[in-house]
Amino acid sequence: MGYGLLDAHAAVLAANNMHIAGRKKLCDVEEYRVVNIPSTATVRWSYETDIIPELFFPVIHISDTTDTVVTIQRGSTCLPFGHSNPTQCYYNGIVNLRAAVTDNNETVVYTKQLTLPQDISPTLPPRAYLKKIGWHESRTFTINNCFNVPDDMLKWDITIQYNSSNIIHYGRSWYFDPPSPGIVNIKLYNLENCDSTLYSNYNVTVDWRIPDPLLSPLNPVTSESAEIFVYYNEYFRRCGRDCEGEELPSIDYTLELWDEGSRNIRSLKKSLNSTKDIVKLDVSELRNGIYLLTLRMNNQIVSSNKLIVSR
Fold first, then answer.
1. Disulfide check for 167: which of 50, 158, 260, 304 has CB 3.0–4.6 Å away?
2. Model pTM greater than 0.70?
3. At 169, phi and psi to the nearest 5?
4. Architecture of the structural domain at 214-309
5. CATH class of 8-116
6. pLDDT tens digits, 191-227
């Protein structure tokens, strides 16, 4: 009698380490049991959920509500229990499975939260994979759905064609800094799916071709030296002055000056390691006239332009 007195028998039941054993994810049919239940005890199974069922189609079906071991089948919004393949209309959401254990007129309720998952494959926004990755670019790919799926349940299976490597990554985002050209294949899995074979598939093109530098002398030359711009037109076309000074892998080139008799009268070796290089070329000893500037890389002329000397 009285408030606050210990219910000794209920405490003993709780101390027996009783619990509901079984898989948390209910994909189709699973078995659940009350572990460490006394032989004199009885059990009654029930469940609670916020899922609104269709008429005559319950959310889950419990094989025997009074047995210590039960089989639970996931319900369907359109097909009755026992149908061979109700996967197209399964209920999705959370179910709280309850086992009320009674012994000597004392009852303790145990609860296990079950997930009725919806098979959803992770996806990337189109702008992330349709656009090529250019030379000296990096990109962060971020999944744009599956917001309730834990990061460790989002799996990336990445195959990089150009070096035959395979990367397994978990999380919502993946950072990629391409070292070489080729195709990158990305498969995205939601490990909470009941169907483990489902994935989203993407191919990303890494276009790592080094653009040829261009020559742009400031004509006419009216002083003792010519000012010549060597730059990557692709970068300036893409982002203008925002790219100016961007560091790039160093490229060796040779700047050559030819007279009207096709004689090489100047040769200057340089390295281009940014989007633009300004070269000063001594023309103090040259006569006024039109000359040919060429830019040579790997023993090939890749760009040329006129140089007009008029002092």
1. 158
2. no
3. -135, 145
4. Sandwich (2.60)
5. mainly beta
6. 989 988 999 999 988 875 555 677 888 999 999 999 9
